[in-house]
Amino acid sequence: MLNFFKGSKDVHKKTIAKLYISHDFSVYDLQSVLNSFFKTESQSDLTFKRISNGFSVDVNVETNEKKGIVTATRLQCIQNDHIIYVVAEHVEIDLSTYQEIKKPADFDLKKQAFFKHLQDHLLTLQNDHLYALKNEEDLSFVTSLEKDTQNFIFHVLNIREYILSILGVSEVTFNDSEKENPKNTSWFFVLTSERTFLVGKTPEDTMIFEPVSNEDFSILKKTGKDLITTENLSFYTEFMNDSLYTELLSVIKNTGNRLGIFGDIVVKKYHKKEAHLAFASRLFQLQSTTADLFINELKADMILDLRRLKVAEEQHESLLKTFKKHVNAHESFGENLITIVEDWQLSFIEQKKLLTVLQPLQKKETAKHTIAFHDHMYAKFIEKEKKKEVVFEFNLNYAKHLNNAERFTEAISLYRTIYETLPDDSIADLLPKKTTNLLEGEGGRQLKITILEAILYIQKQLDEDVSKTEHQLAELQPLVAKRIDALQSHKTYQDKAKTIQEVLHAKELTTATITHSNEYQRLEKAEVLKEVVPSCFKNAKGFFDSLNNFIAALNPPDYDSVISFSDRLNSHNYPEIMERITAICYALQINVPECYIGRGSYANSVIGVEGKPSFLMIGIDFLNPKHTRYLEVNALTFLIAIELAHMYFEHSKITSTDVWRGAADKGFTVVTMLLTVLPFVGNIGKIFGNVASVEKYGKIISRVEQVADVADKGQGFVEVSEKFNLNPFSKDKSQANDSENLLITSRLMEIVADKVALLFCNDLKAAVKGLLVGSNTYEQDSHIISQYGVEAFLARTNEEGEFVHQELIIRLKSMCAFYLSDTFEELKEQLYVS
Fold it and tell me: Can you tell me the distance from the alpha carbon of 294 to that of 327, in angstroms, rounded to the nearest whole number?
C-alpha cells in the first residue's frame, strides 16, 4: 500500500479511501465527475494537474489577505491497477514565498459528499441493471451493504455477468491453516450468473476475494445458523437468512442456467405481485445460453400472465398469443412447457387450464410441437380423474391430438377405447326432427359416427384394411351415398351396396327375380327379439313385460264389424299368399290368423290384430293387378310379415298403421291410449334417462376441435329430447309429452317388425316397394318416384322445411342398416332350411 503521510494510522485511514474500478476505466475519467460536482457547489471550474498515475485538484480554495496565505483541500486520485486511491490533505500556501505546508485533511474522506458522489458514479457504471443495487422489488436475496463493499463486488463483474444474491455470513474458516483470515472481517456470500465467491472486508478496509465456484456445497441444518461447507472452507449463515441458502442451492450447483433457475425461485417465492413477475421475466430474458434459450424465452413471456401461479380465465387469450409466438420456434415446445409447470410447481388444476388454452394448437400445423404436454397430462389425468364424461372428453381431445401429430398407432388405439365406452345412443335413431335430413347423414348415432370416421382416417394413413370400419359406418348411415359407395370396393358387401343404390335411384319399383322358398325353420321369440330390437332397449329392465301390459289395456278394433263387410282370404282364392302366411306363422310359432280382404277404409292397408280370434286384413288394392297399389307376392309378403311380426311380439294393437290411421275409428280414443302408456314409459326409465347422457356426450363432442360439423348434424336429437321432455322423472305429465313417448314406442315396434319382415321377404327391393306402396299418400306421390326416383320422393319437404315422408325414411334407414348387418345373415341361416 502506498504511504502518503507520516503519522497516525487513524489519520491515514480517514484521509485515504479506495475506489474499485473495472479494467477499462481510467482515473482521468473522474475529472469531469469532480468538476461537475464542485461546479454545482462553488459555481467555478476546477483546475486539474497531472501527477504520476493520476491527477490532483485543489477545492474549497480560500484566500486570507490579512495573513497572506491561501488555504485549500487538495485531492489526489492515483490509479494502481483496479484501484483508485483518493487522498485528501489540507494545503496552506504562503503568498510571498509560495511555500506549501501539507497535512492530512481534518475530515473523514469516505463521509464527504463528493466521495459518495464518486462511489455512486462508479456504481452506476458498474451496475449490471438487474436488481442488486436498488432492489426495488424488496427481494430478500440481497442484504444491505456499505457503498465501498458494493463498489468492490460490482467492479469484479464481467460483461453480462449479473449479481443474483449477496448474503451475510459468519465464522468463515479456511481448511488451509496458512491462509490469513483477519479477525473481525465482515464476510459476504456472493452468487452471480457465472460465479460463486466470498468477499471479506477487514477492519483496515482491505477487501478479500475468495472464489468457490468450482467447489461442492453442502448445507448442514442446525438450530439457528446453518453450517455450509465446501472443499476449502466453511462458514455459518446468519440467523435470519439460512433458508435462503437452501433455496439457492440449485443455482449454486448449476453453471449454465443460473439466471433461469433463479427466475424459477423468484416465481415460486414471489408470484403475487406484478413487479415480481416482471422481474422474473427479466431474469428469463437475460438467460440466453444456447441450451436453455427457448425455454427461458417461453418462461419470460408466460410468467407475466400467471399471477399467483394461476391460469385466470381473463389471461387465456394472452397465454394463447404467447403459445402461438413460441410453438413453431422449436420442436421442443411441449417438453419445455412440461419443464416449466414442474419448475414452477403448478397444480394439476392449473395444468389442466393450460391444456385448455393450448387446444387451438392441437391442429395439424402445430400438433407435433404440442403433443408432449398432452402426453404429460394424460398420465396425470387418468390417475386423478374418475368422472366418466370428463375422462371421455379428455380422451377424445387427446386422440384427436395424437392423430394430428401423426402418432396414428396410439391414436387409433385410444379411439377404439373411446368407442367401447360410448353411451348407447341408439335411441337417437327414433328421435329425428321432421327437418332432420337423414339422407345427408344428419341425426342418428353421431357419437359412434364421429369416432368411426376418426378410426377410418387413421386406418387409411396406416394402410390398414378399412372394410370393417366402412361397413360399420354404412350400417349407421345406410342412406348416405358416400357410405354405400365406399362398400363397393369390398367384395363382401358389393352386391348389397349395389342393391341399396339401385333402390334409392329407382324410378320404377321392382322386385328381385329370385326363387322364393316357403320352407322355414322355427324361430325362438326371445332369441330373435334381442337381435332386432335397438340396443338401447335390450337392457331396459321389465321392458317387454311392461309392453305387454300396455297392449293388454287397449281395446282392439271390433271383430264383428270388420268381418261384416269383408271376404275371407284363403287357399282357394289366393293360394300363393295363403301359403306364405302359413309358412311364416309356422316359423314364428303362432297360429294362422283368420284372413280377410279389406275394403272401404281398409282397402289400402294391411292390418293384423291379436285377439280372440286374431285376424289379418289385407287391403283389396294390393291384390288387384289393375290398381296402382298392386303388389307382387314377395312385396306383399313384406307387408303381411310386418303384421304377423307384430302378433309374434304381441304388439299388434298399436302399429303405426293403426295408430296414425286414427284410433277413434277402432273404437277407442287417443286420450285413453295416451293415459294407458304411462306405466309402460315409467318402466323403461333407463332408456329415456339415457337421452340426458347421450345429449351430454354430444355436447362434449361439439367442444372438441374440428368436429363441430358432426355435432351440428346431431343437434336435432338434442332439440328433440328437450322439446319432448324425455325424462322419466319429470313432473310434466302433459298429453303432448305422452304423445311423443307413444310415437317412440310406435317407431320401435315398426322397425322391429320391419326387420323380421325383411327376413321372410329376403328381397330389399320388394320390401322397399311394399313399404312405399303401403304408405297412405302413395297414389298422389307415385308420379314423383316415376319421374325423379325414390330418393327424390323421400327428400320432399314442405314450406316449413319438414320432410313429408320422415316416418318412411326412418323405417327405410333402419331396414337398410339391418340388411347390411351380419345379424341379418345370421338370422337368415337360422330361418331358411339349408
Answer: 10
213 within domain boundaries: yes
Instruction: Say whether both 246 and 135 belong to one domain.
Output: yes
Q: How many helices (H) and strands (E) does the chain have?
A: 35, 17
What local confidence, expressed as pLDDT, does residue 98 receive? 87
Q: What is the pLDDT of residue 518?
A: 75
For position 241, what pLDDT does the model report?
Answer: 93
Q: Give the CA radius of gyration of the chain.
A: 47
Q: What is the dihedral of CA 4, 6, 8, 10, to 10 degrees?
A: 0
pTM value?
0.79
Give the residue ranges of DSSP H helices in 287-427: 293-302, 316-327, 333-343, 348-358, 367-384, 388-404, 408-421
At 28-57, the pLDDT tens digits run: 999 999 999 998 877 678 999 999 999 999
Q: Report how many domains make up the chain.
A: 2
Contacts of 354 (CB under 8 A, 6+ apart): 311, 319, 337, 341, 346, 373
Q: Is residue 565 part of a domain?
A: no
- pLDDT per residue over 320-372, tens digit each? 999 999 998 888 999 999 999 999 999 999 999 999 999 999 999 999 999 99
Domain-ending residue, one of 252, 269, 294: 252
Domain range spanning residue 244? Answer: 127-252
Q: Which residues contact 286 (CB under 8 A, 6 or more apart)?
A: 130, 160, 162, 193, 259
Which residues, in sequence order, are CB contacts of 739 under 8 Å at separation 6+?
Answer: 674
For residue 268, pLDDT over 90 is answered with: yes
CB-neighbour burial class of residue 552 (10 A; exposed 0-12, middle 13-18, buried 19+): exposed
Domain boundary among 252, 285, 315: 252
